[in-house]
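Suppose a colleague, Dr. K., hands you the sequence of a protein chain of 259 amino acids and asks what its three-dimensional shape might be. Before reaching for any lab equipment, you can write down a predicted structure in token form. Begin with the sequence itself:
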Amino acid sequence: MKKSDFNYFLPENLIAQAPLPQRTESRLLMLNRQTGDIRDGQFTDFIDLISPNDLLVFNNTKVIAARLFGAKSTGGKKLIDTSYLISDSKSGVSGAGRKAEVGTLLAEAGDNFKAYGVKGHRHSPEIIQGLKAIAGHDDIGLTFVPHLTPMIRGIHSTLYAKITPEGRDTDFQALFEKFYANEPFVDVMPAGSHPETRSVRGSNALRIAIHRPNNGDMLIILVVEDNLVKGASGQGVQCMNLMFGLPEDMGLKHIALLP
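The predicted structure, expressed as tokens, is then:
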């Protein structure tokens, strides 16, 4: 491995580079974390925990980011029942990667809509691990159902969480607004909003809308992001900026592409 300030590696590429470099040689950012033991490096799931002292950062990608951001504001508080969480997520075809596969052909994916990975998605363990870290306990029950939509890019996640009796008087809109007030790429939209995937296309932005139908005990969180930017490369650059003590938004200030 050549010495450099920064390297991007896919899991298979990193595994081939054994042993991992010493802390004095370079910093690593791995774009797609796979479950398994890490022999060196400091592990973190969340962008706001990254510091210039980190050698190895695993960047949660694509469908993962939407769920973690959506639940983060409440997961660490006793306001929701963390044993009963539902994530209904829709992703564009590019989320499957750029490869020749029948299921992603235009004639197969276009004018079509389907769920997949219902009995167990490969990202589920990572999502649950992140939620446990947020909540500070292991009592996490997550039902995660991803769907493939006939669009090129974008993720729309609808998250459902049951509000606990002690959380019924909570203003969740104000809670989310306060929590993400200083996050440059997280937009907590006005109450009653419905975010659209096209509003974040090509940008590093993530938009959240909070709903509580009929002021009942079900909290519904809508989250949209671009799986190719915020869900992948853009978040990778954001991590790199933090690892090197640079402005978090450096190189990422471009707005969404419309129409």
